[in-house]
Design brief:
With about 400 residues, the chain is an alpha+beta fold. It has eleven helices and six strands.
Length: about 400
């Protein structure tokens, strides 16, 4: 007669993971409170006399097409199309409209029958309705890309990959649901960004690793590393005399501030550094804490082992961060190179200074989080070994 294996039920799982559940429950409460505090106040608005709606449409027929390739623009298309489309969403769903599609090398693109497009429908007080093509409708292609990413993470990573996707979802909710609305309401840019990033680090590492000694050590190291990236960013910002007001795309935000939106602009440079460093810092600290948790029984010199492991990570991770910043501004870097600027002129430009400050400050946060995490993990596990 075969013995029935006793399977752990929900009660046993809860007992085993009670601290993880408690931390995540508290984090959920904090997230809800943060969202309520950061949520913008509702403004009752009457029906506008003029409306602009972006809706999905399908191209039924190309009525006329004057687009052609322009060799001077690397064979980008120029011209315009007159299209017959069927609206697939909004108040005009099911209706057919004739719309113009204006195409240039830097905007738009030729459309064909069967393509989906996002159209701009402008409604005026006299009853006139005008529609033009805004862009190719990328919602479905983007959904496919995201689905492939999720599938790859789950297939390769299994349960851990699924947990990482949950952690990513929490990160996005925190950034778009709490941080950005709070900044628009006038919250201190640096303080709010650091609090949200510390929250993300704690919750993400709890979701992926649970509340264990190694994950707690990684949390402490990640928060400390992020704080050091913030401090070094402030120092580098002061030395180079650049701040958020010198960021290339800050002008629309400055106009918002001038019209009454109390957003803090000067802290945006260092705030971006903190967010950029966070992922790499969590990666490094969790890697070191996990490695030391595995070797602590055989090697009493945990802090030295942690430093040896961390040194291998520094080279690739620092390179990754610097290349990420350079890649994000690659087009402008190519343009600056084409101007043939002198070295001094290039180094004195605000753009280069900001990229250097961003890349190096993020890297410093990662580098300094290594000894901090090694020391914290060594202290925790060495104390445990002495007590046992």
């Amino acid at each position: 007669m075969k013995k029935k294996t006793k399977q752990a039920g929900p009660a046993a799982w809860l007992r085993e993971n009670k601290w993880t559940c408690a931390v995540l429950a508290a984090a959920l409460v904090l997230l809800i409170v943060g969202r309520l505090l950061a949520a913008p106040a509702r403004v009752e608005a009457g029906q506008p006399e003029e409306r602009a709606d972006y809706e999905s449409a399908v191209v039924e027929q190309v009525l006329s097409d004057s687009t052609e390739k322009d060799p001077a623009a690397d064979n980008g298309y120029r011209g315009e199309q007159l299209l017959l489309v069927t609206v697939k969403s909004g108040d005009y769903q099911g209706q057919q409209m004739q719309v113009y599609n204006y195409v240039g090398p830097l905007y738009g693109g030729p459309l064909h029958a069967g393509d989906r497009a996002t159209i701009l429908i402008s409604s005026y007080s006299d009853g006139t309705v005008n529609a033009t093509v805004y862009e190719f409708d990328r919602l479905i292609p983007l959904a496919i890309v995201v689905a492939l990413f999720i599938a790859a993470a789950v297939i390769v990573g299994g349960r851990t990959g699924a947990k990482s996707l949950v952690a990513l979802a929490v990160t996005l909710v925190c950034l778009f649901g709490v941080l950005l609305p709070a900044l628009m309401k006038g919250a201190n840019t640096l303080l709010m960004t650091f609090i949200v990033c510390a929250y993300v680090a704690v919750v993400s590492l709890t979701i992926v690793g649970g509340v264990q000694k190694k994950s707690v050590c990684a949390m402490l190291g990640a928060v400390a590393g992020t704080a050091l990236a913030l401090l070094f960013g402030l120092l580098a910002q002061a030395l180079t005399r650049v701040d958020g007001l010198r960021i290339e795309d800050v002008e629309p935000l400055l106009q918002l501030r001038q019209t009454g939106t109390p957003i803090g602009l000067r802290g945006l440079l260092v705030g971006g550094i903190i967010i950029s460093a966070l992922g790499a810092v969590m990666d490094v600290t969790m890697g070191i804490a996990s490695s030391l948790a595995e070797v602590h029984a055989a090697n009493p010199q945990l802090s030295r082992s942690g430093m040896n492991i961390g040194r291998d990570m520094v080279g690739t991770m620092t390179n990754t961060l610097i290349l990420a910043f350079l890649g994000s501004g690659f087009t402008l870097i190519l343009y600056l190179y084409s101007l043939g600027l002198s070295f001094r002129q290039l180094m004195s430009s605000a753009y280069v200074s900001m990229e250097v400050v961003s890349g190096i400050a993020s890297s410093v946060g990662v580098i300094l989080s290594i000894p901090l995490t090694a020391l914290i993990t060594a202290a925790v596990f060495t104390r445990e070994k002495q007590q046992s």
